[in-house]
Amino acid sequence: MGSGGSREKFTAQPEPDYYRGGGGNHPYPVPEPAPGGGNARVPLITLFIKTLLGEVSTYHVPRDCTIELVKKEVAAREGPHAAVHRTKFVYAGQTLEDERTLPDYNIKHEDTIFLIILLR
């Protein structure tokens, strides 16, 4: 974040359609190799996480992951003030439950989820 508390305008970066398992420090589970060898592939989607101040961050997550895993990804990047237990996500006017998945809420590639950080 720059001075004045605002971020530069978001510019999409090209990303691969899949994350290949086998390394990295990701909060979501890395799949086992596919039967018969080779790398298992996890389809990724791009999500935009927007704060109430209008700041937007981009995340690339498995399309069928839980809300909690997306929150962990946000916490890993944003720091302790955005810990899972201190955040709430809102999408299409409803609060998202941690144990449910993105498809449960019909969240798709390039959708925007609002992030609320609780002041407890």
UniProtKB/TrEMBL annotation:
InterPro entries: Ubiquitin-like_dom, Ubiquitin-like_domsf, Ubiquitin_dom. Residues 1-10 have a biased composition (Basic and acidic residues). Signal peptide: none annotated. SMART domains: UBQ. SUPFAM superfamilies: Ubiquitin-like (SSF54236). Gene3D superfamilies: Phosphatidylinositol 3-kinase Catalytic Subunit, Chain A, domain 1. Residues 45-120 form the Ubiquitin-like domain. CDD domains: Ubl_ubiquitin_like. Residues 1-36 are annotated as: Disordered. Pfam families: ubiquitin. It comes from the Eukaryota. This is Ubiquitin.
